[in-house]
Design brief:
four-stranded parallel beta sheet
């Protein structure tokens, strides 16, 4: 089986890591696909299919060729990319325990990038974020 395309639907601060949380960040390999990127800002409804495809192509290019797993903090926001993908005819799975479950086991790796939070700069390049144990 091909490696999954893992989409983390949380907001940028949660995905990057919260300084006050000692087990913070995201699951290594998870791509940041904030659920709000999939919704029309004015209506709160899903973007049109062509716009959704462009968002997924930009944020998670492997979505067309790999099995997709969505996650978030506790299993709610992760359903948004699942529903958007379903509307495009793509099956996906939800890691329902999401990061809240993942971080409970201290031996599980996670990635965090906290330095950008106070820098005023653009979001970091997550592919180069350091692994945290």
């Amino acid at each position: 089986m091909a490696q999954a395309c893992h989409m983390d639907a949380r907001g940028p601060v949660s995905y990057a890591g919260k300084p006050e949380d000692p087990r913070t960040g995201h699951i290594p390999g998870a791509l940041h696909v904030h659920f709000k990127e999939l919704l029309d800002e004015d209506t709160g409804l899903f973007l049109e299919s062509d716009a959704l495809e462009k968002v997924f192509d930009r944020l998670a290019p492997e979505w067309r060729t790999r099995p997709v797993i969505a996650s978030c903090g506790s299993g709610y926001a992760g359903t948004v990319p699942m529903l958007a993908l379903s509307g495009l005819g793509v099956d996906s799975s939800l890691y329902d325990g999401s990061f809240s479950e993942w971080k409970q086991e201290p031996s599980r790796p996670r990635r965090a990038e906290l330095t950008w939070l106070n820098s005023g700069s653009a979001l970091p390049n997550w592919s180069r974020a350091p692994a945290v144990k």
